[in-house]
Amino acid sequence: PVEATDDAFWDQFWADTATSVQDVFALVPAAEIRAVREESPSNLATLCYKAVEKLVQGAESGCHSEKERQIVLNCSRLLTRVLPYIFEDPDWRGFFWSTVPGAGRGGAEDDDENARPLAESLLLAIADLLFCPDFTVQSHRRSTVDSAEDIHSLDSCEYIWEAGVGFAHSPQPNYIHDMNRMELLKLLLTCFSEAMYLPPAPDSSSINPWVQFFCSTENRHALPLFTSLLNTVCAYDPVGYGIPYNHLLFSDYREPLVEEAAQVLIVTLDHDSATSASPTVDGTTTGTAMDDADPPGPENLFVNYLSRIHREEDFQFILKGIARLLSNPLLQTYLPNSTKKIQFHQELLVLFWKLCDFNKKFLFFVLKSSDVLDILVPILYFLNDARADQSRVGLMHIGVFILLLLSGERNFGVRLNKPYSVRVPMDIPVFTGTHADLLIVVFHKIITSGHQRLQPLFDCLLTIVVNVSPYLKSLSMVAANKLLHLLEAFSTTWFLFSAAQNHHLVFFLLEVFNNIIQYQFDGNSNLVYAIIRKRSVFHQLANLPTDPPAIHKALQRRRRPPEPLSRAGSQEGASMEGSRPAAPAEPGTLKTSLVATPGIDKLTEKSQVSEDGTLRSLDSAPQQSSVEDSPATEEPSQAWREQRRLSSASASGQWNPTSEWVLSWKSKLPLQTIMRLLQVLVPQVEKICIDKGLTDESEILRFLQHGTLVGLLPVPHPILIRKYQANSGTAMWFRTYMWGVIYLRNVDPPVWYDTDVKLFEIQRV
Predict the structure, then answer these.
(1) Which of 220, 258, 313, 577 could, after both became Cys, cross-link 236 (CB 3.0–4.6 A)?
(2) SS3 of 349, please?
(3) How far is residue 391's CA from residue 427's CA, in Å, rounded to a whole number?
């Protein structure tokens, strides 16, 4: 053990002048940190305590000399290195939350009762240092003679890092300040990362004490820091000045800071909205928790501030910023590699999710104009690009979750009717149509040529299509054929009988067709034509065999390759020019495991659209036994997740369908509307073909365009929307996903690599 008073010994850890964080990681190997932890714990304790003390002193003095700044940076690098090894050992976890005897704030005369836990001192010092003039922010004092700005009387709201929400002045960019901020944010993120060393809890209510304290009223810089982080992310423009190859000439020191800011931001916003005090806001009122004096809103100030943003220009700034950054990887120029490609789109998607989830006014703003399409197109691009890559299954989920959340609002469906003209090179068939066509074509591609682990997402994908279907004015022929191809694939007897819940996919598709026929018949001659052409599929469904021998025979087909979705029945046109096919992960790619997501019945709640367009929630009370309604889920979703995985992956007869089971849902198949349509139109179409000797589609389409079914179809059913609802299952999923992304993205220096994380497993593809 070395005495805490032996300054000469301890100072050598931070007095050295020119180290970088990479040097610290190289000089302090993991094995040595663990050895000190096991063999001389008092030295490790002293080292941590001394390093925090140096940061506190730096924050108190305002870091005026170069030497002080160097000490602060070295201490923060050292703590960034050591903290994960403190967190991985359960015996050490309480260390930072204990007070150090005799370490009262004001020296000897202070009582030990007033001593803060080490963690609190550390967090407050980091917050102070992030607004330290001439170290992390521009000094406002002009003359050097003047006494240095007093760090205690400083109003950090005047030192916000970037213009945007709540701040109009954009400070001069300063490379050194950005680097210093980045090192301190990396330390902050490391403090928060204790969450990585706790296994995923089923109730997700475990609050991260580091985040809780940092985002509480104890931190006087909470508001300016929240604003600085948000504005730094949303104001960033990676293209920069529009000079091609600019990013190869000047290294962009802003990007690492923006990345770090985005990561710190999403971690501070890790808050389970399902259990929080703020009331839910339905589509009719646009109140937030803050308009009402009663509910105080979440304790976490970052969540609180985020939920209270309300000015249109602030929403515009945030939305434009996120859309600009999400679209960046899609920017195609004629000069290869001439623009910088950002890598932090997953953090941005989590941030966008949090914004929509915690601030309903922001969600309505996003959907109010067609700006939402600037978010939609990049998400569809990422989904399509990642569909074959096992290591990006988390990205697939968050993209689908965001679209599910948006699809619960009528405006999203309406916006999708905008023609799609931006030609982002994507590995999908060429089509002419709207954003709705793009969505359907991409979803079809994911379902038919994604990897097996995406099966749990099929329900979500089809729920999104159901939610938007009543508003789709005119599907292209390509998209109409894709939907019928999915129905064809999902309604084979082998697929329907091979797992307990596969028939739900057929119900979703029939609901899509019914919504379009009942509410948007006029513009949808392409879909009507496709339904007529594939009418045999509907007749087969109506005559689905239910006797045991037939079921047994259908399941015998399982001996053949079990992938039910071939691309054979789908006319695959040539892919778009300039697109690359979606590639699987390179072997050896690291990925982090994710907890299972709740089934669609837990993820969403059903609402009915009333005459006046408002939504009425359909509680779990007995519903009108409307035949249009897909059957309620019988088993718990976890069980059928498992069931479906087993039935598509193994032939071990886990699932035995019975005649009663098939009959129970076959009788509920909502086929009346389509059967009536076929009954009326098929003879007419056949007559035209015979009379005119036609084989030409265009003539038939022209006939269908002018046809009408008014008075011939059954009474329109009420529109059912399945809206996303917050629940602890998704909160836990977001936590594991977010920390997995942060773990994998921080490779230089590799902050958490090879430490014993418990929140997820690290796997190689």
Answers:
(1) 258
(2) helix
(3) 19
Mean pLDDT of 602-608: 86
Sheet containing strand 615-617, strands side by side: 615-617, 604-609, 720-724
Q: What is the CA radius of gyration of the chain?
A: 29
Q: What are residue 237's phi and psi, to 5 degrees?
A: -125, 100
Long-range contacts for 92-98 (Cβ within 8 Å, ≥24 apart)? 92/37, 93/194, 93/197, 95/45, 95/48, 96/48, 96/122, 97/209
Per-residue model confidence as pLDDT tens digits over 21-37: 888 888 889 999 999 99
Q: What is the DSSP string of 149-177?
A: PPTTT--GGGG-SSSBTTB---PPP-HHH
Side-chain half-sphere exposure of 597, counting CA atoms within 13 A? 26
In which element (H, E) is residue 615 found? strand 615-617
For 653: left if phi > 0, alpha if psi spans -120 to 50, otherwise beta; the answer is left
Distance CA 656, CA 400 (A): 31
The average pLDDT across 615-634 equals: 45
CA distance 377 to 400: 13
Return the bridge partners of 617, or none. 607
pLDDT per residue as tens digits for the range 715-728: 888 899 999 988 87
- pTM of the model as a whole: 0.87
Does the pLDDT value for residue 141 go beyond 80? no
For 414-430, the DSSP string reads HHTTSB-------SSB-
363-411 per-position pLDDT tens digit: 999 999 889 999 999 999 999 999 989 889 999 999 999 999 999 999 9
Tokens of 298: 């979440």
Omega before residue 749 within 30° of 0, cis: yes
Rounded to whole angstroms, the Cα distance separating 155 from 376 reads 40
Q: Do 415 and 367 meet the contact criterion of CB atoms below 8 Å apart?
A: yes
User: Strand pairing partners for 764?
Assistant: 590
- 720 forms bridges with which residues in the sheet? 608
pLDDT computed for residue 286 by the predictor: 37
pLDDT band at 651; cut points 50, 70, 90: very low
Tens of pLDDT, residue by residue over 530-567, are: 999 999 999 999 999 989 888 888 888 765 544 445 44
Report the pLDDT value the prediction gives residue 630, as an integer from 0 to 100: 36
Q: Which of 511, 529, 531 has the alpha carbon at shortest distance from 519?
A: 511
